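Lecture 7 notes: from sequence to structure.

We start with a single chain of 169 residues. Read the sequence below before looking at the structure.
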Amino acid sequence: MESQTTTLPLKQLVFRAELRSPLPERKLSLGAFHFCPSATSALPLSSALLSRFGVPGTLKMFGRLLTPSREFICVAAGGRLATYAVVNVGFCRRYAVEPGAILLCNGWTDPQYRGRGLMEGMLARAINHLIARGSRIFYMDTRENNTAMRIVIERFGFGPPVSTIEPYD
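Now the structure, written as C-alpha cells:
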C-alpha cells in the first residue's frame, strides 16, 4: 500500500512597519518608475497594461483606480510592465489595517527581469513618495517561501511577521 503525502498550502506572512525616513533607492537597471494615484495618471501606461492584463484586466485596473483608496505603481520598459504592485490606502480585504495605513500588495515581476532588483527599487521609490505625502504605517505580505521578497521586506525595516493568513492568488 502506497503512502500519500499531503502538502499543506504555504501561508501568507503579514509584515508591518512604521517608517518616517526615506529608504535608500536602488538604481533601476532598466525602465522608468511610475506612481499612478488615479486612472487618469495611468492612461499613458495603457499599452503596457493591455500587454500584461488584456482588455478585461486593464478595465478592471482602471476601475479600481477610480477610487481614492487604490493606486498603482510600476516599472515599465519597452512598452511592457517589468514589475508592478498595487497600493491600498487604509484598507485590506484579507486583514485589518489602521485608517490611512498603506498596504503594498499583489506585486509581480516579469520572469525575464527577476533578480535585477526592480521590485526593490520600485517599492523603495513608492514608499518614499508615500512618506513624503505623510504616510507612516506600511504593510506588506508575501508567501512564506518567497525568500527574495522577505529579504527586501527586512531591508526596508519591517520586523518579524505580525500575523499569518491563508494564501491567496
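The chain has a mean pLDDT of 94. Keep this in mind for problem set 3.
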